[in-house]
Specification:
With about 210 residues, the protein is an all-alpha fold. The chain has 8 helices and 2 strands, in the order ααββαααααα.
Length: about 210
């Protein structure tokens, strides 16, 4: 009997031959991790230019936007770009949302959370910190895509900040305190305040850089 957890034949679980299990199977046949990282970064920069150049300050962000961003970013690399993942995933002992629950959770994000927190035009610093914290935590906890959730979530936070009249965010603080960041994500299952504090620090650092 085949286990319902068997991932045989699921392209999301496959790695590129010759990559030693480090690069997901892809349309380009790339097996070198550094090369794939460069490709994804270049494509992300292009997506960033497109999104920042086309999104409006009074435009509500939707799940359709996020799926389209993901497809536009990675559609030429992975067959599953823009689709919800069908594998269960985690980081260490912490498990992200079960794949079967993703459609329901994303629908809740789309109908309950995003309409109340976007667009961010006219938000105070405290309102913006809270809005970004909630949306960021929820999206990371759901982890809707096979790859690229963190990077897409940062792009979304950038759009929210720009809507509120802030410059694009500098995430150096998060990069320097990865353990604190991930702890805030985990605590976000019941308390958004730790992530709200991290968002405030990013906003302060961003303003300092912009003023400098």
């Amino acid at each position: 009997m085949t286990s319902r957890y068997d991932t045989t034949g699921n392209v999301e679980a496959e790695f590129q031959p010759g990559s030693d299990g480090r690069v997901l199977v892809n349309k380009l046949g790339v097996s070198d991790l550094d090369e794939m990282d460069d490709i994804e970064l270049d494509l992300l920069n292009r997506l960033h230019e497109y999104v920042v150049g086309s999104f409006q300050a009074d435009q509500r962000i939707t799940i359709a936007d996020l799926r389209e961003w993901h497809r536009r970013w990675l559609g030429n690399v992975y067959v599953w770009a823009g689709r919800y993942r069908t594998l269960n995933m985690g980081k260490g002992e912490f498990q992200f949302a079960a794949s079967r629950r993703i459609p329901m959770l994303m629908d809740d994000l789309d109908t309950r959370i995003l309409p109340s927190l976007t667009p961010c035009s006219g938000f105070s610093e405290d309102q913006l910190s809270e809005a970004i914290a909630i949306v960021h935590v929820e999206l990371i906890l759901i982890h809707p895509f096979r790859e690229g959730n963190g990077r897409l979530s940062r792009l979304l936070a950038n759009v929210m900040a720009l809507q509120a009249g802030w410059p694009e965010l500098d995430y150096t603080t998060w990069d320097k305190c990865r353990n604190e960041y991930f702890s805030a994500i985990q605590m976000g299952t019941s308390d958004y305040e730790p992530m709200k504090g991290l968002v405030r620090r990013v906003l302060c650092e961003t303003v300092g850089i912009a003023d400098g």
